[in-house]
Design brief:
The structure holds 2 protein chains of 2 kinds. Chain A is an all-alpha fold. Chain A is built from 3 helices and no strands. Chain A has a single domain, classed as Helix Hairpins (Orthogonal Bundle). A two-stranded antiparallel ribbon of chain B has the order 1-2. In chain B, helix 3 runs antiparallel to helix 10, helix 4 packs antiparallel against helix 5 and helix 13 runs parallel beside helix 20. The chains are: A mainly alpha, B mainly alpha. At the A-B interface, helix 1 of A face helix 28 of B.
């Protein structure tokens, strides 16, 4: 590895991953896919964190990544529970059906 | 303390009666009647002691006037008026008369009011009477001891107030005790007639202030000569304005009408205020203003004529009266006329002399008349108790008037003490030698004979009538047969009433000693204060003529009323003799009716016009209802309600609602319920914020 890969490469991949995740959140209607897209965004952020940590030789970013993973796991647990409830009520998990708060 | 230092005691003559009235006012509710009377009498008596002490000090000081400063009152610009006491021979003479006669009347009132409040069924009013009486003494003392016209005026108004309060003492009934406003109307009449006089006094005071820039006696008298030289009309107008005040307070023509009605007050009040002291304040005022009056002979002539005409006029009316107190009231007016005529023509000492003796014998006569009235009331009550059942069956048609001489007769047997003192008073008033009235009246007549013959003849005729009406009264009241059952049952009064009468009778007998011809005690005494008095010569022609006329008058009254005593229901023999002339006298020349027709009814007309037209139609209907209320309605309804409120303020409220509704209608489209669009908005927001931060 010998530090030959420049930081910008990592960040470019991170940006691509984040954009893909964002688009996935915005355009897909299946909540499972949306969750996966959210995970993609989080992991793009994780990638940026570790890249910066490695680059600047500090541990803070690496530790942060563990927190982000933990929070993501917790969020997924809550989200899956919500999806189960929604399915019970609507017999569908299409997010566009969830528009009761329409003004 | 040096003897003359004792002059600083003089404020006590005012403070002692005030202390007495305060004690009775605050603690009187829990004090027995006798204590109330004792406190009031003691207060007045101590004031007399102080006055006597002052008199003694003056005597050893050769009558030099002393001014004792007491309190500051008014400081405005150049005007300084302080409450100073003036102790000179004139003021001390008045103090002695006021407190001396006043104390005797206080003592008399202890007995009189004791019965009066019981006859009239309001025992609680006993205390109020003595409070008023002490207040009167205090005010009268302020009047006679004041060192300026303004302080004199304070007392002048104060005694007027007391007169009002005491005339209307039984304000809710008439003199016979029936429910009526007669007594309070009499009080108001006195107040209003006096107010006219006070107006004249005030004008005089204003004129003095304008020309002299001073209101104290010394200040005015010392400048009077110079002012008279510059502007003679000033002194004339001051003296004539003062005469209006004198006519009001001393019941002279044309303002005398209040005094006969003032007899509505309890008899001690009639004696103290409306015979002995207050009504003589006018005489005192003229004597006090002697330096002014002597400068303007026209004013003196006017005053003397007013006095002379009043003396004659009132004496004739007294002949035709049946009420025992009314006769004395007109007699008082007539005698005041004597005094005013005397001081008017410059015989100040004679006027003051008559003031003093008149205070003795007229107080005596009034108090005796009160004793007679009480005696009659006792007789009447006796009757009611004995014939009470008959009375109830027969109804209460006849109202008994204990003061009507036609109900009396033969009272000398039932009331011997009252008879004798009354006789002394009557003879003194009639001017029989050697009683007090003879000396003082003859001094006036002798002075008038030299100085003003026209007034002399008026006064002489008045003196004839005086002797006649007093003779008529004595014959009617004390001689002949009782003309009413009550007169048969009449009882003599208690010693608390008769002892003051006896003291006054002694004074009425001996009062002449004050200024006997040849001794001239009073002349010398007052000579210290009033400049230029000279001892009058005793005129045997005048004295003989007046005594002869008095004897003829008494004989004539005996011929009419004593020889064949009046019987119950019989017409007055003088009425048969004089016919319509007597009716004129009986109706008092219709002066009251004349005033009603010419002044009071016109005044009522003007008041009605002011009330109905000016106040009612113009002020209320037009100004208030039409202009003010109408404008207000127009402004509130048309302008504020329709224009401002509905069109402007409502529009703001409505506009706010419409605006909010429109904004929210626009905004609700954003709230579409799709989570992804919210997420897009969040993303866009983040992008925008980051873009801004990066590109900044």
């Amino acid at each position: 590895m010998a530090g030959t890969i420049p930081l910008s490469y990592y960040l470019a991949i991170s940006a691509v991953l984040f954009t893909m995740g964002s688009l996935g959140v915005l355009v897909r209607r299946n909540p499972l896919i949306i969750f996966m897209s959210v995970e993609l965004m989080l992991n793009s952020a994780n990638l940026a964190f570790v890249a910066f940590a490695r680059s600047f030789n500090v541990l803070t970013g690496q530790i942060f990544v563990f927190f982000v993973m933990t929070v993501a796991a917790a969020e997924v647990a809550v989200g899956l529970a919500l999806i189960v409830i929604i399915f019970r009520n609507k017999h569908s998990i299409d997010v566009d059906l969830m528009s009761n708060l329409k003004g | 303390m040096t003897p003359s230092g004792l002059f600083s005691l003089v404020p006590l003559i005012v403070l002692l009666p005030v202390l007495g009235l305060l004690i009775n006012l605050i603690f009187g509710g829990r004090m027995p009647e006798k204590a109330i009377g004792a406190v009031a009498s003691t207060a007045s008596g101590l004031a007399f002691v102080v006055a006597a002490l002052l008199g003694y000090l003056l005597w050893i000081d050769n009558g030099l006037a002393v001014v004792i400063p007491f309190a500051d009152w008014i400081h405005i610009g150049e005007l300084n008026v302080a409450w100073n006491f003036r102790v000179d021979t004139l003021s001390v003479l008045m103090m002695l008369v006021v407190s001396g006669v006043g104390t005797l009347i206080h003592i008399y009132a202890i007995g009189y009011m004791h019965e009066d409040v019981r006859f009239k069924n309001d025992i609680g009013r006993y205390r109020r009477f003595f409070v008023f009486l002490n207040l009167f003494i205090a005010m009268m003392m302020i009047l006679v001891s004041g060192d300026s016209y303004l302080m004199l005026f304070v007392g002048w108004e104060g005694v007027g107030l007391c007169s009002f309060l005491l005339i209307g003492f039984w304000y809710e009934m008439d003199t016979l005790g029936r429910p009526s406003w007669a007594n309070s109307n009499a009080a108001k009449k006195a107040m209003i007639a006096n107010r006219i006089g006070d107006f004249g006094f005030l004008l005089a005071a204003f004129t003095m202030f304008w020309w002299f820039k001073d209101l104290s006696f010394d200040g005015i008298f010392s400048q009077a000569g110079t002012v008279a030289a510059i502007a003679p009309g000033v002194i004339l107008s001051i003296t004539l304005f003062l005469l209006i005040g004198v006519a009001g307070k001393s019941a002279q023509l044309p303002l005398f009408v209040w005094l006969p009605d003032a007899m509505a007050g309890p008899t001690p009040v009639s004696a103290l205020i409306h015979a002995a002291t207050m009504v003589t304040a006018g005489v005192y005022l003229v004597a006090r203003s002697a330096p002014l009056y002597t400068l303007v002979p026209q004013a003196q002539t006017t005053v003397a004529l007013v006095g002379g005409i009043t003396a004659l006029f009132a004496a004739t009316i007294a002949v035709g009266q049946y009420d025992i107190k009314k006769v004395l009231a007109y007699s008082t007016i007539s005698q005041l006329g004597f005094m005013v005529a005397a001081v008017g023509m410059g015989a100040f000492v004679a006027g003051m002399f008559h003031l003093v003796t008149h205070a003795f014998f007229k107080a005596l006569l009034f108090l005796s008349a009160g004793s007679v009235i009480l005696g009659m009331e006792r007789g009447h009550h006796h009757l009611l108790q004995h014939h009470g059942t008959q009375d109830k069956q027969g109804g209460h048609d006849e109202v008994f008037d204990p003061g009507d001489m036609r109900n009396m007769g033969g009272l000398r047997k039932q009331m011997p003490v009252t008879f004798w003192v009354y006789l002394i008073g009557a003879l003194a008033l009639a001017g029989i030698v050697p009683l007090a009235g003879f000396w003082s009246k003859d001094e006036i007549l002798a002075d008038a004979y030299i100085k003003f013959p026209a007034v002399f003849w008026m006064l002489l005729v008045a003196a004839f009538f005086t002797a006649f009406y007093m003779g008529r009264q004595v014959w009617m009241v004390f001689f002949g047969q009782p003309r009413h059952e009550a007169a048969v049952q009449a009882e003599e009064s208690k010693p608390v009433i008769t002892i003051p009468l006896m003291i006054l009778a002694a004074l009425a007998v001996l009062g002449g000693v004050l200024n006997l011809p040849g001794l001239h005690g009073l002349t010398n005494w007052l000579g210290h204060t009033i400049v230029g008095v000279e001892a009058g010569e005793f005129n045997f022609f005048v004295a003989g003529l007046s005594t002869l006329l008095a004897l003829i008058a008494i004989g004539f009254s005996w011929w009419l009323y004593g020889r064949r005593p009046l019987l119950a229901g019989q017409k007055d023999p003088l009425k048969k003799l004089l016919g319509p002339v007597y009716t004129i006298l009986e109706r008092k020349y219709w002066v009251d009716e004349f005033y009603w027709a010419t002044i009071i009814n016109r005044y009522v007309d003007v008041s009605r016009f002011l009330a109905n037209v000016v106040d009612g139609r113009f002020w209320h209907d037009f100004v208030h209802d039409r202009v003010i209320a109408g404008t207000y309605n127009w402004i509130s309804k048309i302008v504020l309600d329709q224009r401002v409120d509905r069109q402007f303020i409502d529009a703001i409220g409505d506009g706010l609602g419409v605006l909010t509704k429109r904004i929210s209608t626009g905004l609700r489209r954003l709230q579409n319920g799709f989570v992804r669009s919210y997420a897009l908005a969040v993303l866009a927001g983040v992008v925008i914020i980051l873009g801004y931060l990066i590109l900044k």
